[in-house]
Design a protein that fits this description.
The chain is of the alpha/beta class. It has nine helices and nine strands. The protein has a single domain, classed as Vaccinia Virus protein VP39 (Rossmann fold). A seven-stranded mixed beta sheet has the order 3-2-1-4-5-9-8, sandwiched between helices. Strands 6-7 form a two-stranded antiparallel ribbon. The protein is globular and about 45 Å long. The mean pLDDT is 96. The structure holds S-adenosylmethionine. The site of S-adenosylmethionine (SAM) has 19 residues, from helix 6.
Length: 225
């Protein structure tokens, strides 16, 4: 199975949830640090898009700090689990949408959140993805993308090895896995987006870019419209 179908067919819903459940303590710290970084940049009146929301892992935390949250993902199975987990919460909507063509009107969101390395995990043309995210941002809105820090490589690899041992992802190819890219023998890859690359993605857009390293584990690119 190649990258594009992986999250829909294999790493969806309970399988995706299992990846997070088996995260070791250092990875849990990284996941918490990412959420805290985003929450600190949400405002009570914000309408927020959680792009590639999966089974809604991060949505309750974001919802508590904003007015409305919309979660989109291209996996219906993950969205069904998100609906169950979020119950009858009225502060959020869930929609099935591909990240590169969101279908929202221009200027719909104050914040677009694309964390946990979504920019790499979506396996779409990154330039198209960033342009689409900027399109749905309101004037003075902000998009928050995150990828992994190189400093976190050993802990990240440890987490993926646990996922592989649990049969959630394929066997890790130990020869091809290097330089920020995890490669499985079944063709799955999980990359990293370095700042030079991210700068080229926004070069022709009328936006400002800031980057932050958080917790020695995550790198955030903040794109302000
Ligand atoms: C690494 S998981 C992160 C899930 C969630 N953001 C979290 O942190 O718990 C990546 C998510 O992106 C979704 N995804 C993959 N490709 C996508 C695409 N082209 N459009 C929208 N979502 C996509 C997957 O189904 C999966 O839920």
């Amino acid at each position: 199975m190649r990258d594009a179908g992986y999250y829909k067919e294999r790493l969806a819903a309970e399988q995706l949830q299992q990846c997070y459940r088996l995260a070791p303590a250092r990875v849990r710290q990284y996941l918490r640090a990412e959420v805290e970084f985003v929450v600190a940049r949400l405002r009570p009146d914000d309408v927020v898009l959680d792009l590639g929301c999966g089974y809604g892992r991060t949505m309750p935390a974001f919802a508590g700090s904003s007015r409305w949250i919309v979660g989109t993902d291209n996996s219906l199975a993950s969205l069904r689990l998100a609906r169950q987990r979020l119950g009858a919460a009225t502060y959020c909507s869930l929609l099935c949408a591909d990240a590169k063509q969101l279908g929202f009107a221009a200027g719909s969101f104050d914040r677009v959140v694309c964390i946990q390395n979504g920019i790499s995990a979506f396996h779409v043309d990154r330039r198209v993805l960033v342009r689409e995210v900027v399109r749905v941002l309101r004037p003075r809105g902000m998009a928050l993308f995150s990828t992994y820090s190189d400093r976190f490589w050993e802990d990240r690899l440890d987490w993926f090895e646990r996922q592989s041992a649990a049969g959630l992802i394929g066997d890790i190819d130990r020869i091809l896995t290097r330089d920020g890219v995890i490669v499985c023998k079944d063709g799955f890859t999980a990359g990293t987006v370095h700042e030079e690359e991210f700068r080229t993605l926004v070069a022709n857009l009328d936006v400002e870019l800031e980057s932050f390293e958080v917790d020695d584990s995550s790198v955030f690119y903040l794109v302000s419209a």
